[in-house]
Each structure stands twice: as C-alpha cells, then as structure tokens.
C-alpha cells in the first residue's frame, strides 16, 4: 500500500421511471499512480442492512484503482420511503447511475467492474443483462436467489433452508422486535450452531462498532427484504450467454449456509466455472475480514 487514500462522499441525481432519484456514493481516486480516465472503475455493491459505508475500509487495499461504493436504491438515508425492495429497480438505477457518472466525468464509454455481495449479486446480473457494454467484469460473492437453472431437488433443499433461516426473523419482525430480527439475520448469515436456548448465536453486538452503526441505520431494509417484489428469473442459458459478453466470477464460503452455497454453485455451473469455494469463511466475509476479501477480489480481477 502507498499513500493513504482520500474518499469523498458525493451525490448524483438520475432519472428513474420518470422520477428524479438521488443516489449517494463514496468516490476514491487512485493513489499509487496517475488517474487513468479510461481504466475501469471498481464499483462495490452492498447487501441487506448495508450501504456505501460497508466498503469504507476497502480503498486502501486498491491504491491503483478508482473506487466507487454506491448506496443502492432503497437503502441508506431516506430509503425507507421506497417500498418494497425490487432487484429489477435496483438494477435499473444502477445502470442509470453508471451512465450518469460517466456523463458527468465526460467518459461516456468507461466500463465498470462490479464487486457485489449477497442481495446485490442478482442486481448486478440484471444490470449487466440490461446494459452489458457498461460492465467489464462481475465479481459476485454469494448469490441468494433460487434461479440460474436450479433444478427441483436443489430448489427444495434451498426452500427448506430458507424457511429455517427466515422463520425466527419473520416472527421477531411481526412482534416489532427489530433488534432481535437483525440478530437472527446476522446469526443466520454467520451460520454458527444453534444454541440450546434458540436465541441468536451471533448478533450485532459481536460485530464492530462501525458495522453496528451502519446496520442500525439500515435496519428497515430487513423488513423490506421480507416484502420484496419477486426477483426476475435468470436462466442458465441467459447467464452463460452473459458470461461470454461480461466475464463473471462467482465465489462462496466453505462455511456458508445452504442457501448461499446452492445459489452460487448453481450459477457457477451455468457458466461452467471450475471452483469458487473459499476455505474457512462464511457469508459475512466481506464485512468481517477486509484484508482477505480484498486479496480475493484482486486475485479475481481479469484486467
């Protein structure tokens, strides 16, 4: 690493379905080399309970890259007004954001490399299907949608694990116990053995103070996830065709729960990817081990 990177929080207005939408993002210029206005930007996309700050420790590990960390549509301050979550709308606003940023920077053909996690993986795929020339590569950590050509037997296994994961979260949400619902969600993502008391085995207080602040401010996104619009299907054939236009790398953790592994492995199979499993990690890798995930991303870059 070289000179400490300087990140600026900025806003950009886009037109989305005939309405003006303002998106917030963190922008970090490269520090180890002169800015190359043609080189693809790295664009980081967070998951549920997150926003642009999920990636605030990452720019220092990519000193040669221009970094964008975007708060997606429906998240962050004011996002609670946008009900419910919708991966298609998130994808549309992502494409509009990329175009608007390129226009603002007077680099109309500059592509983006997407690094997406969890909920954002399907968003990134939908965006690339809509506008493949905007993106040079997709690096996806743990998809969560039962799509991509998933067969019935695997879909049944997925549904069983999803029900097991979400049932206590739904109960806590219905009882208006938001903090408990968040703890159940975090515990489910951590995938530790259940306790005898059935209480969450891992929760917000086990995470860093910075993550606690981010997740408390985005707590409403968990309820929005429960009520989200049905994500559009992406067939195995469509994914394979997209991969030929925009190279896709799919990754998942060895210790991650069933739903994350099944979705990711199904998508990896569709694009005929060999490997992708990361040893001794779980779904929370990007926010709990920045150094390791940064190294994995750098190793995955094709440029």
UniProtKB/TrEMBL annotation:
InterPro entries: AB_hydrolase_1 (IPR000073), AB_hydrolase_fold (IPR029058), AB_hydrolase_sf (IPR050266)
Gene3D superfamilies: alpha/beta hydrolase (3.40.50.1820)
Pfam families in alphabetical order: Abhydrolase_6 (PF12697)
Any single Gene Ontology cellular-component annotation: membrane
Superkingdom: Bacteria
Matches recorded under PANTHER family: HYDROLASE, PUTATIVE (AFU_ORTHOLOGUE AFUA_2G14860)-RELATED, MONOACYLGLYCEROL LIPASE
Name of this protein: AB hydrolase-1 domain-containing protein
Taxonomic source organism: Ignatzschineria ureiclastica
């Amino acid at each position: 690493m070289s000179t400490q990177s300087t990140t600026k929080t900025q806003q950009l207005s886009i037109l989305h379905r005939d309405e003006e939408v303002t998106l917030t993002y963190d922008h970090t210029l490269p520090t180890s080399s002169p800015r190359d206005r043609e080189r693809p930007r790295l664009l980081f996309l967070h998951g549920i309970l997150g926003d642009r700050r999920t990636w605030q420790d990452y720019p220092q590990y990519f000193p040669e890259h221009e970094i964008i960390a975007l708060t997606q549509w429906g998240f962050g301050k004011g996002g609670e007004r946008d009900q419910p979550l919708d991966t298609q709308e998130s994808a549309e606003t992502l494409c509009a954001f990329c175009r608007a940023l390129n226009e603002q920077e007077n680099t109309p053909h500059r592509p983006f490399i997407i690094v997406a996690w969890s909920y954002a993986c399907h968003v990134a795929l939908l965006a690339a299907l809509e506008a493949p020339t905007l993106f040079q590569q997709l690096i996806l950590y743990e998809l969560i949608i039962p799509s991509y050509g998933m067969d019935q037997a695997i879909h049944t296994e997925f549904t069983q694990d999803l029900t097991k994961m979400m049932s206590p979260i739904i109960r806590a949400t219905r009882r208006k116990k938001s903090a408990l619902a968040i703890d159940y969600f975090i515990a489910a993502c951590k995938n530790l053995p259940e306790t005898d008391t059935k209480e969450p085995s891992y929760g917000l207080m086990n995470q860093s103070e910075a993550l606690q602040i981010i997740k408390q401010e985005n707590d409403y996104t968990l309820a929005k996830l429960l009520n989200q619009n049905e994500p559009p299907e992406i067939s195995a054939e469509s994914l394979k065709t997209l991969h030929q236009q925009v190279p896709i790398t799919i990754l998942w953790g060895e210790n991650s729960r069933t739903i994350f592994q099944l979705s990711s492995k199904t998508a990896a199979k569709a694009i005929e990817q060999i490997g992708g499993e990361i040893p001794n990690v779980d779904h929370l890798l990007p926010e709990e081990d920045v150094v390791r995930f940064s190294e994995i991303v750098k190793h995955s870059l094709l440029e």
